[in-house]
Amino acid sequence: MELTVNKGLAWLKTINEKIQEKKDYLTDLDQAIGDGDHGINMARGFQEVEKKVEANDYADVSDLLKDAAMTLMSKVGGASGPLFGTAFLKLSMSLKEKDPVDYPSFSTAVGAAAEGIKQRGKAGQGEKTMVDVWVPMAEYLQNAQEFKPDELETKAKSAMEATKEISAKRGRAAYLGDRSIGHLDPGSVSSYYIFAALAETLQERK
Amino acid sequence: MVNVGVVLISHSPKIVEGIKEIIRQVNKDVPIALAGGTDEGEIGTNIDKIITAIEEADSGKGVLLFFDIGSAKMNAEMAVEMSEHEQVKIAEAPLVEGAYVAAVEAGIGKSMEEILQTLHKNF
């Protein structure tokens, strides 16, 4: 695995593509157990990210991800802004002066991002939040020896799908408690798109 | 007199405007800055707005932040971390009552620590 500035740009663009495509789906998910603005918020935020990073030149991946983080924080709104912003900020900080980014530094960075999300949201695993995708993904990346895009996508998908069976303990969905069971966590679905986009971007082309 | 400043953070611009009106009935001097709604004036909170409000409310004696539901606190925490102002604290008290008590105390020249203690005792 080698994550360069160009690949990083492609990653962010692919995330945006997926989020735009799934905007209404994300909103439907959030209407079921939250305040119904997740799709709109994420679509606005990642559109701004794409606009921002397209207009600038970056010396390394860390700089690129930092700009993405700052844009998400101020443009997404809701709890997702600070949470996804923190995730990308931690990635950026952890990848400082690492260019191109190799597999061990990337898996460490995802660990830092997962930790950042937990602290920012004061959430642990099993509370039906994006932590339920980021923590298992950080563990998976740390245990795997090399970057396997297909496996990464599958892991992210099953982590995301597992949030369906959890009773919400955090955020607006917590008011519903057990009535949130049977619904996917919207933040986890968005997190899945982030990892799926990564797998797609770094897929070896034959 | 230099007073501790108050920042009101809510998902709704109308909420913070209303609280400010209530406080201004009893105090005209304490710096009160508002961070209500998103940057497009919709329901939500915004880090940049909170950072700007901290700057507005800081007259050198510190700033206390009051917040409402959900993401408001998370955004307040990020704003505190990103703000270059020292002496900025998030108050763990109900938005309306807490801000009111803090403004009254700030108005009689209390320090940030003293106000935080009063809030801690009352809420």
Describe this structure in words.
- Chain A: GO terms for molecular function: glycerone kinase activity; phosphoenolpyruvate-glycerone phosphotransferase activity.
- The complex is a heterodimer of chains A (206) and B (123).
- Chain A is mainly alpha-helical.
- Chain A has a single domain, classed as DhaL domain (Serine Threonine Protein Phosphatase 5, Tetratricopeptide repeat).
- In chain A, 67% of the residues lie in helices and 0% in strands.
- Chain A has nine helices and no strands.
- Chain A has helices at 5-21, 23-33, 38-54, 61-75, 80-94, 103-121, 131-143, 149-162, 186-202.
- The mean pLDDT of chain A is 94.
- Chain B has helices at residues 13-26, 47-57, 71-82, 95-107, 112-122, and strands at 5-10, 32-36, 63-67, 88-90.
- Chain B is of the alpha/beta class and 123 residues long.
- Chain B has a single domain, classed as 3-Layer(aba) Sandwich (Rossmann fold).
- In chain B, strand 1 (5-10), helix 1 and strand 2 (32-36) form a beta-alpha-beta unit.
- In chain B, strands 2-1-3-4 form a four-stranded parallel β-sheet, with helices on both faces.
- At the A-B interface, helix 5 of A face helix 3 of B.
